[in-house]
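Re: the 201-residue chain
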Amino acid sequence: MVKKFLVSAMVLLLLFTAGCEENNNPPQENNNSPKQTTTQPEQKNKTEIEVEKDKPAAEKNNSSEGQRKTLQVKIYYPDDAGMSLIPVTRQIKINKDDDKYFETAKLLAEKPKEKNLTKIFPNRAKINGVLRKGDTVFVNFDGSVAENFVGGSTGEEMLINSFVNTLTEFPEVKQVKFLINGHEVETLAGHMDLSSPLKRQ
């Protein structure tokens, strides 16, 4: 009886020891575990953020402002004695090439920075638009250009020729046609014939 009892005790002891060893062994690493799978996309996202941060501002901001280009143009102001037109250089910024005619013409409505030059364009007048068709540029004034013009025959000649000389600086432009509120006019202030396009004198 004692022998059988010892044998049974030894068997139980062996089973107990084997179970403890199995529990103490760490589980083997599984390469397909969820932890490994989720770590890879997180690393990728971090890399993408770093690349975006290192991009130049011009690449990150693809706005219309970034696409504008600067042109140097020549415009003509009357001298302060009203005797001749004097060319000066200015810069304009445009989004597309056809914008250069309007942006250049708008400079003639501004007061010149040079002390010996003057602005002949009426203060309350506006340029509605400037459009090129072939070798002709159409300048569309609003009605207040004629209403507020007080320059007399010399002033009218200076005003009209300042636009003609300025816009024909572009080699593709040969003549300028003047409109008021989109309509053809015979004259601006009764001194110059504007019924036909005008060429540079």
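Helices lie at 2-24, 34-54, 57-60, 64-67, 100-107, 144-147, 152-167.
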